[in-house]
Amino acid sequence: MSTPEKPKLRSQAWFGRQDKMGFYYRSFLKNSGTPQDQFDGRPVIGICNTWSELTPCNGHFRDLAQHVRTGVIEAGGYPLEFPVSSLGEVTMRPTAMLFRNLAAMDVEEGIRAHPLDGVVLLMGCDKTTPALLMGAASADLPTIGVSGGPQLRGMYRGQIIGSGTNIISMSEQLRAGEITLDAFHEAEAGMNRSSGHCMTMGTASTMASMVEALGIGLPENAAIPATDARRNQLARMAGRRIVEMVGEDLTPSKILTRAAFENAIRTLAAIGGSTNAVVHLLAIAGRIGVDLTLADFDRLGREVHCLVDLMPAGRFLMEDFYYAGGLPVVLRTLGERGLLHKDAATVNGKSIWDNVRDADCFNRSVITPFEAPFKSDAGMAILRGNICPDGAVIKPSAASPDLLVHTGRAVVFESVEEMHAGVDDDSLDIDASCIMVLKNCGPKGYPGMAEVGNMPIPAKLLRQGVRDMIRISDARMSGTAYGTVVLHVAPEATAGGPLAFVKNGDTITLDVPARSLHLHIDDAEMEARRVAWTPPPPHAVRGYAKLYIDHVLQADRGADFDFLVGRTGSPVPRDNH
Ligand code: FES
Question: How far is the CA of 12 from the centre of ligand 1 (A)?
């Protein structure tokens, strides 16, 4: 009786050849001590690593990669680790977001060009997650995402402090003269006291949760702390599982379906996640051929409550979330409420519902029941109006309830430099009822759509005790930030969007329940201002920044490059001889 023929692996187009090129491909890899049997048709697994000392949140990834490697070998695969561009949120200028698409191209082409059958993605700091998912989605080889995990709770003088969130509050206390510079420095050391990414429900934790909710990561991926041994176990299990996935040909396009994205959007609301996830999910969906729109976020998020009492909106941190049961509890709750596509596939071969149906909650202060949620109706609100014809985003759960319907006088800054120069000037004509407007910080304008949308409250108003105001811009906001902040205005000012035509003294009405953002001028006046408008000069005339400015799509399209949208898959490239 003949045994069934094993499916021919992609990597065998390199390693399975008994000719001159086969000699090349195998021989050079043998310089690391690789024996001949590694080329015998076993799955070759790429470990795509974003380790960098310039990305401190991913600083433990060389260790994490070793656990993936062990799992791959245990399952009979051949692991090959490779570096890709890393994106350190706190170190890169002008903004790590400028380079998300560049890193995604690096990942896609790195996967496609090499003799790989499957990939494990190691990702943590904010933009590393969407960049790797976007690239892997375009390559469409079997893929598992492994997040690096959040840091331990920040501790400062007996208090728990959260990354980002307390930086913002403490820097405002410093500006208001409420704490000393020594105390400020002491808090820096206490905040980042372990490996891992930001431990609030900021962008990194949100995206790690999206990895789990999309089904492209293993259960528990979102919240296990970076320093908890169970994070290493998860990495090892991912190494084992990816070898099986190659045999099953379980590719991202079979997992990242519309149902998976709808699950992710509802999860985003249920965790009170970062507004940045809106842009990133749109971009990932664009890569895999799912027609996701801003309207999906508003529609799907409307029925969902925020179930987790985590900073920036709440009290606890990711470590607490994990001990309370983590994301599986949230997903189970959504499933019990009919808010989860239960049959969505996941990388472990089970449906998402099979993964979470028995998840228990161990702390109802951290993960609240649906009937008594931390915050009601927590989905992203998508605003429309004559300032933002293609949409704008606000996170009502992070906003002040008394500002959700408000009319005020516009105080306009043409650039972030103008804003920084003027915001603390006591002669600035502004009061707490005003609406701060910031222009030219969108994808093309900054460039890279920086996280400057949560403009600082003017110093003179801080001294009066004002802690929140309506702020509107075409920028993004850090996921660790909070406030009544309207973001991602599209089209952006630099691209000639109506935001460019707002003037000091104009009247603006924000009405979140009506999903409206309106500038009180008539169409004729808007058109007159459009005709009189001159676009600002581009920030770059060469290199990658010029490519970015020329090809980046607007925020409502995920700020991906126009030439990267659409499903392409990963053929074996042409031979090089
Ligand atoms: Fe890296 Fe926050 S700075 S996750």
Answer: 39
